[in-house]
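#struct-help
A.M.: can someone run this one for me? Single chain, 161 residues.
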Amino acid sequence: MIIAIAALVPPVLGFIWYNPKTFGNVWMKAAGLKEESLKEFNMAKVFILTYIFSFMAGLILQSMVIHQYSIYSVMMNEPGFGENGSEIMLYIEEFMSKYGTNFRTFGHGVLHGVIGGLFLILPVIAVNGLFERKGFVYVAINTGFWTVCLALMGGIICAYA
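D.P.: on it. Structure tokens below:
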């Protein structure tokens, strides 16, 4: 449920970020777009797909911001995994009772969102920008947008999942 809420961040922030009163005009120039060409798109479709893709990003972001999930991936092939009362499940339950809330804050999720923005999003957008012959402003605006999105999404997911 919390991922569905966090997935609202990119469409809402995008409405603000790419608005002509913020970065919209500079972004359109950097992207080589004209206002007329943007009106040709079905915006309902754009926002629906944005939400779906944002939900997908939230799914993977959850594993980045909540460290405790890694115990499940490490232990999933152990005999008795998933069986109530098994030795491995008792171990996991004990681990989670001791450490299940460590690093589960909004700020910690923001930190990992920023790290994801700088070390995952920036390289992807920068490489695409290089091949598309886009400049620094294009890369900075888009990377900034996704870094802020991942930071807010990470904070929400980490604190409330």
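A.M.: thanks! The chain has two domains: 2-67+104-160, 70-102.
D.P.: also worth noting: The chain has a mean pLDDT of 96.
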